[in-house]
Amino acid sequence: MSNEVLSQSEIDALLSAISAGEMDAEQLRKEDRAKKVKVYDFKRALRFSKDQIRSLTRIHENFARLLTTHLSAQLRTYVQISVASVDQIPYEEFIRSIPNMTFLNIIEVPPLAGRVLFELNPQVAYAMLDRRLGGTGSSVNKVDTLTEIETKLITDLVEKSLDSFEEAWSSVAKMKPQLSDFEVNPQFLQMVSPNETVVVVSLTTQIGDVKGMINICLPHVVLEPIVSKLSMHYWMQSTKKEPTSEETELLKKRVYTAELPIVAELGRAKITIEDFLSLGNEDVICLDQSIGQPLTIKVNHIPKFKAQAGKIGRKMAVQVLEKLTGGESDEQ
């Protein structure tokens, strides 16, 4: 039997058809007993589970957010990037799906083996170029022979975006992505065998009024060493670890050497703004406590001690009489 679950609307339509006599219940039972054959394409070997695909989707949703912020600052215009789809297909199928002339950036991701491919749709790439050259961000749907300056501008934008790619992957794998090559014709690019399974992440990209796609091709050979980390169990498990004795001692030293402001408060007074503006030489301000009362010692603006004023040699000093306790101030 098929394990497909019908929606409520499909169930209602089926019951209505049986009631109206348009469909025979006995015929349905015979069809149900018949063998169901599902076509399987061996060229599209599924090497990643749905759980792993969901993990890849989460990683690249984070990358899309980081890349949106980065390109908005670089291009100084409205940029919106989101994940459109994450699919696993043969490499040959991916190459056939992209334009004959496009912007292909080959990325190495040491220490992982293999290479990753960033494909920038011509609309997106030309909009980036136009903004970097002082234009409004208009685009054309073709790829002409690029000048050295245009090639440098495109590769520079891609290289700077690799920091966002590294950050998005940092929770799963430590990598140092580097741009190794640039190509415009996919027929001249053979990263893996045609039947090799690759994960293609398609990012819907809008730059100003121009919309296009950025495709990221992740070959199986790149993801194979870290495929076990692309699971819900790995994402949910705690990464907290107890600090070592060396780390604890280092933390203590840093705390002990931290500086805090200490103030001995003689007293307080309230005056009006008019009196304040009229203050002059030899004027006296009366405080709210007498000379015989202890001073308040404040540590980081919090009352901590009571003390009396005095001198040590030629320097002013205070002698602590008691520690103040109670409330949140004491806990801090």
From TrEMBL:
Record GO biological process: bacterial-type flagellum-dependent swarming motility; positive chemotaxis
GO molecular function (one): cytoskeletal motor activity
Gene Ontology annotations for the cellular component aspect, listed alphabetically: bacterial-type flagellum basal body; plasma membrane
Keyword Metal-binding: no
Record has Membrane as a keyword: yes
Keyword annotations from UniProtKB, A to Z: Bacterial flagellum, Cell membrane, Cell projection, Chemotaxis, Cilium, Flagellar rotation, Flagellum, Membrane
A UniProt-annotated Pfam family: FliM
Membrane topology listed for this record: Peripheral membrane protein
Cell location: Bacterial flagellum basal body; Cell membrane
Main location group: other
PANTHER family: FLAGELLAR MOTOR SWITCH PROTEIN FLIM, YOP PROTEINS TRANSLOCATION PROTEIN Q
The family this protein is said to belong to: Belongs to the FliM family.
Protein name: Flagellar motor switch protein FliM
Organism: Priestia filamentosa
